[in-house]
Amino acid sequence: MSHLLEVKNLEVRFALRFGDLTAIDGVSFTLDKGERLGLVGESGAGKSVTGFAIINLISKPGYISRGHILFDGENLAELPGEKMRDIRGNRISMIFQDPMMTLNPVLTIGTQMCETLMAHRNISRKQAEAVALEKLRKVYISSPEQRLSQYPHEFSGGMRQRIVIAIALLTDPALIIADEPTTALDVTIQAEIMDLLLELCASEDMGLILITHDLGVVSRVTEKIAVMYAGKIVESGPTENIITDPLHPYTKGLIRALPDPERRGQGERLQQIPGTMPTLTALPRGCSFHPRCEIKGGICEKEIPESRAVKGQKREVACHMAENPSPPPVYEREGA
Amino acid sequence: MFAFSIKRISQALFVMLIISFIGFSIRQQIGDPVRDLVGIRVSVEEREILRDKLGLNDPFAVQYIRFLGNALKGDLGHSFFFKKPTLEVILSKAPATLELVFVSSLLIIFMSIPLGIFAAIRPRHWFSRFSMGASIVGVSIPVFLTAILLIYIFSVELQWLPSYGRGETVNIGGWQSGLLTWDGLQHLILPSIALSSIMLPLFIRLIRSEMMEVLQSEYIKFAWAKGLRRRRIWFIHAFKNTLLPVITVGGVQLGILIAYTILTETVFQWQGMGFMFLEAVERSDTSLLVAYMVVVGALFVVVNTIVDLIYGLVNPMVRVTGRK
Ligand SMILES: Nc1ncnc2c1ncn2[C@@H]1O[C@H](COP(=O)(O)OP(=O)(O)OP(=O)(O)O)[C@@H](O)[C@H]1O
Ligand SMILES: [Mg+2]
């Protein structure tokens, strides 16, 4: 069976004054119909750029310099403007990080919902409103009829993100890309929104790419994980394998930095990965991670590690030193 | 909206109070109403008696209150040159100025919006670069120079358009209008172009920079991600948000246009309030000057209040604070 989405060797560059900067460097992954993938990594790793590349909407000096994005048998990296427009917000929807900034402050919710439908379907405003109401109910917005004529500022952050999700659902897309959909929200409603998203993806059989730097969230929501570091995917595979048995030292570090729900409140210190991610303009030779790596060897400073399959598992890791099979995980996590 | 309107109107009244105070102080300092009334041939003693009678020796505050009371009744003093109430003189000149400002504002609005939007969405296009460059030149040329250049080209050399006066006007209920005759409109063309020449570049740049900022915002990115057509994104999503700051700044600028009429009207011999003002300066017609100040101040305040109310209509957040 062919995949819903197949990203292959994707490379994104930004044309800057002093030359090109490679923000995404040979990223590959696949997603099947209804499958959920978590894209994890530190700030600046290239998660958002990857997400925007999929809908061919990288902001100005950026461009896709190599690779394909096969979606439904078409290469989105080369799709002409009007055809691409009709895929955005229709077959592939996006949810942004900060719901306070995502909705246009001077247009009503009704307008912002109906225009999306009317940009892709040949329907009247009345018909569009009916669909909008149905989707608002799906995200548990009360008395949706009145909401249509209200403006974004009349809603709380959590409500706005529900509305943004409702907008994403309008056209029954095959894929939703959610770029840190809960980071800007109150901790108390983060789980609520994430559960809603999970529930909707499952019930509508939608694919999801969840971009986040929170491995904890990903382990709850997605079936697959791809860990990004400095523009590359360093490790990918089924969520359970990666959480319980990380191979790449960076993934291990991320998991060690997770708070353990069982030991919370007992004064246990979280372990941080020492150092920071290098800027893309000054990447170290060899493996980008080696300056922070605990298990680095001589080869790491010379050669860029290729992504390689892990024997007997459906996962890949890009590390010279990662043992296989690996030592036991740092601590047990249940229900991953 | 109601509470908002009340707030704005009381602010406007407060500003008017300050303007009237300044105007009154000026008249106290340099004007001599007795001379205005009787001329200089009357003896000092007689003038002193007259001063007492007119209350001119009363304390400042008492006189100011009296001035305010009169002003509220529409009495802003007497012009010693025209031998008429100053308000009457000004009102007879107002239509000329208001029509000039009105046509200039239309020119500014209908030129700057398309030019500003184009420069914002196609910043690298040669035409955007050209209009940005031209706008720098435009702001730096003084109005009277523009006016003289226009007259030289279109009146003297090409002889297409008249160079001075209002031409044929029609009287509609006391309002002398030049907008309704072909001749009157032709006379309006050069002065209104000259008057708009200072503000037009400012507006183009303002719209361009505001719109470019809006185009960077998250909600515009989201609009693209929704797969909207670009015309809708530019003209509905981006432009509506651009309008908010443009209305605030632009409203004030259009008010300032009234001040520039003094220069424009003088060059074009345009029989409006600005022309009258310069004449009044030459004749030391203090009462008329003060009345001009109060009337223009009032106009300015009215324009600003209207602008704020329009802002309230465009910005949904203002409407809600009013509703609460
Ligand atoms: N407009 C741009 N111009 C130049 N470089 C850019 C631009 N946008 C992104 N980049 C580069 O791409 C890199 C990846 O950015 P991206 O926004 O994808 O990070 P991210 O993983 O989403 O991080 P975060 O968690 O902070 O959202 C950045 O480090 C930056 O160097
Ligand atoms: Mg990001």
Task: Give structural notes.
The complex is a heterodimer of chains A (336) and B (324). Chain A has 11 helices and 12 strands. By secondary structure, chain A is of the alpha/beta class. Chain A folds into 2 domains: 1-91 and 174-259 and 277-336, 3-Layer(aba) Sandwich (Rossmann fold); 106-170, no CATH class. In chain A, the strands form 2 sheets. Chain A has an 8-stranded mixed β-sheet with strand order 6-7-8-3-9-10-12-11, with helices on both faces. A 4-stranded antiparallel β-sheet of chain A has the order 2-1-4-5, covered by helices on one side. The model of chain A is unreliable at 325-329 and 331-336 (pLDDT under 50). Chain B is mainly α and 324 residues long. Chain B has a domain at 86-282: MetI-like (MetI-like fold). Chain B has 13 helices and 4 strands. In chain B, a hairpin with a 2-residue loop joins strand 3 and strand 4 (175-177). Chain B is globular and about 85 Å long. In chain B, the strands form 2 sheets. Chain B has a two-stranded antiparallel sheet with strand order 1-2. In chain B, strands 3-4 form a two-stranded antiparallel ribbon. The A-B interface holds A 55, 57, 59, 85-90, 93-94, 96, 98, 101-107, 115-116, 119-120, 151, 153-154, 164, 167 and B 217-219, 221-229, 232, 236-237, 240-241, 244, 314-317, 320. The structure holds adenosine-5'-triphosphate and magnesium ion. The site of magnesium ion (MG) has 3 residues of chain A, from helix 1.
